[in-house]
């Protein structure tokens, strides 16, 4: 029977650790013996271009959906401001169209469509918000002005 190299206890065959002291009987050598900080070999710059192109062609990149979401977020953010809401709903319609284009592209190319759905929802909310505040400013404001309660 072999003995432990650390404490000298007798060890049964096939055991990896000493039952008495817990020492590793078969220490593994590290796979990479190169010093840290030094490159393993020459660096290929074209590999970086491949990674960038792979990232841009990624299945999660849906630029029409991203543009629809950004446009819808703009409408929700500033769609309630007076005089801005008279024209911002054009952007909301553009966001809806971009999001629908993103959904169609995602369906055709079997890509992720979550960003397009989010853009569609946010753009519809922006459209409703801008149109409702526009109506409120026009009708409620004219009624208040007629009674002298509003400038």
Fold and architecture overview:
This protein has 151 residues and is mostly helical. It has a domain at 59-146. Helices cover 55% and strands 0% of the residues. The chain has four helices and no strands. It has helices at residues 45-56, 63-78, 88-109, 114-146. α2 (63-78) packs antiparallel against α3, α2 runs parallel beside α4 and α3 (88-109) runs antiparallel to α4. The chain is elongated, with a radius of gyration of 33 Å. The model has no long low-confidence stretch (mean pLDDT 77).
CA-atom Rg in angstroms:
33 Å
Largest sheet: none
The total count of strands amounts to: 0
Gap between N and C termini, in Å?
102 Å
Secondary-structure element sequence?
Answer: HHHH
Helix/sheet category: mainly alpha
Q: What general outline do the C-alpha atoms trace?
A: elongated
Number of helices: 4
Helix content class? 40-55%
Low-confidence stretches: none
- The percentage of residues in β strands lies in under 5%
Oligomer: single chain
> Average pLDDT, to the nearest integer?
77
Q: Mind sketching the topology for me?
A:
Elements: H1 45-56, H2 63-78, H3 88-109, H4 114-146
